[in-house]
Each structure stands twice: as C-alpha cells, then as structure tokens.
Amino acid sequence: MNATPRAIFWNVLFYLAVVLIVVVAVFPFYYAVLTSFESGTAIFEVNYLPASFDLSNYVSVLSGRNFIRSVANSVFIATVTVVAALFLAVTASYALARVRFRGRGLLLMTILAVSMFPQIAVLAGLYELVNFLNLMNTPWAMILSYTIFTLPFTVWVLTTFMRDLPVEIEEAAIVDGASPWVIITQVFMPLLWPALVTTGLLAFIGAWNEFLFALTFTITESQRTVPVAIALLSGASQQEIPWGPIMAASVIVTVPLIVLVLIFQRKIVAGLTAGGVKG
C-alpha cells in the first residue's frame, strides 16, 4: 500500500525532529571532545571538525597530582552509595509493597516528599550531622548524604515494581517455608533486575556528578571527588581558565558513564517500561 503525501510529510517531519533532538543532545559532548584535543589559541577558535589531535591536555590531566585519586574517590563513593541505597530500598520496598500496616500510603508519600527538598535547603543540617558524626573530610560524609538523597527515588521505583509482581509467587514461597529475607533475595531479586539496574545506574550517575556536598564536606585535595577536582582546575580569570585540560578531564569522567549506559541499555529500557502495560 502506497503512503499518502500527508503520511510521508509527517514521517519526514518526525525524523527531522529526531535528528534535531539528537544533535542538540550530543553536540555539547562532541564539542567538548574536539576542544580537549586543542591547545593554545586554537581553543578559542570555533571548529566543528577536528583540527588537531594533540594529547597534551589528557597527559596534563592524568599526570596531575591528585586527579587519579579523585577518580578513585568518586568510584568508591558512587559504588558504596548504590549498594547501600539498593539494599535499603529493596527491603523498604518489600515492606511498603507487600506488608499491610496503617499509614503505609502516608509513609510512601513522605518518602517521596523528601526528594523534593533542594540540596541547598538541607546543607546546613547535613553539615551539622556530618560534624557530629566526625565524618568531615572523609568519603563517608558524601556516602551518607548521597544515600539520603538517593533513597526516596529508589524506594518509590522499587515499590512500584514490587507491587506488580504476582502474589502467587510469594504465596508459593511462603508455603514452602521461605522467610521474608529468602523471599526478597531469592524470589523477588531475580525478577527485579531491570528495576535494580535502572535505579542503580541513575543513583551512580547522581553520586558521580554531585558537586555541592562534595565541595562542602571535603577539605584536602586527596579526598576530593572528580567534579570538585575539575572545578578547581579553573584559573583566576577568563583568560587563565585551562579550557583544554578541563574539557579533557570532563571527557575522561563522562566516557565511563556512557559505557555503563551502553552495556546496560537493554536492562534500562526494560526497567523503564516494565509495569507500564498490564495485560
């Protein structure tokens, strides 16, 4: 069946819109990659195609005194945050989705409301808490604050997925004598993998890119995370800002996130779409 001119027009318009969205989304990273290979006055020249492939910016960043340490700090903090947030969220979502108790809906709404507070609104309180716990200038200060802000999202998402799991599976496990912990770890966890990957990756990206708490709770260079380390590369004036090394550092810390998304893209799509259609 031949397509009508109207259908062809709307198809062309749709693909043009898709191309425009992709270009707008990808161009900033593409231009950062181009800039990372330029040095000297070439950085201030507008080029949309590669003009040179000078690796001096990458050598400068990687040979820096504490950049590799900052990357290691970010990996450790983001990984521990994801593990802690998912562990707490899975157990909490089981209680909220499967255990009936008074005030369950209100508790879930309260958890969601916590995520609505901006970071700056709770910074003073968290600063006092971190000082009280003697965690200042340690990775655990960031892990604590990141977990607090990550939990509402992970609990809400996993509770939604937990509710959609068939009740018959849980009942069969209970008949077989399974405890709640066994039901969570051996029955529900394998079914929740798409949701766990999705929420875990989003939590990892959030912890990896967070700046305000990392800047506030760290004092020494050896404890800084990647976003703070990149921000402190800036010079005193516009002309002194080392744009080449900054772009090189930005590319270095962005590539691992892109790789993770590409590796788990099927799980992410499944996690985002599961439960959206009932049949």
Assigned CATH class of the largest domain: Mainly Alpha
- How helix-rich are the residues, as a percent range? over 70%
**Number of alpha- plus pi-helical segments:** 13
| Strand portion | under 5%
Tell me what the structure shows:
With 279 residues, the protein is an all-alpha fold. The protein has two domains: 5-54, no CATH class; 66-273, MetI-like fold. The protein is 72% helix and 0% strand. It has 13 helices and no strands. The protein has helices spanning 5-36, 56-62, 67-98, 104-114, 119-132, 139-164, 167-175, 180-191, 193-209, 212-217, 226-231, 243-263, 265-273. The radius of gyration is 23 Å and the shape is globular. The chain starts with a helix and ends in a 6-residue tail after the last helix.
Features of the shown structure:
MetI-like fold; 13 helices; mainly alpha; disordered C terminus; 279 residues; single chain; 2 domains
Topology:
Blueprint (H helix, E strand, L loop, with lengths): L4 H32 L19 H7 L4 H32 L5 H11 L4 H14 L6 H26 L2 H9 L4 H12 L1 H17 L2 H6 L8 H6 L11 H21 L1 H9 L6
Helix pairs in contact: 1-12, 2-12, 3-6, 3-9, 4-6, 6-9, 7-8, 9-13
How would you summarize what this structure contains?
By secondary structure, the chain is mainly alpha-helical. The chain has helices at 5-36, 56-62, 67-98, 104-114, 119-132, 139-164, 167-175, 180-191, 193-209, 212-217, 226-231, 243-263, 265-273.
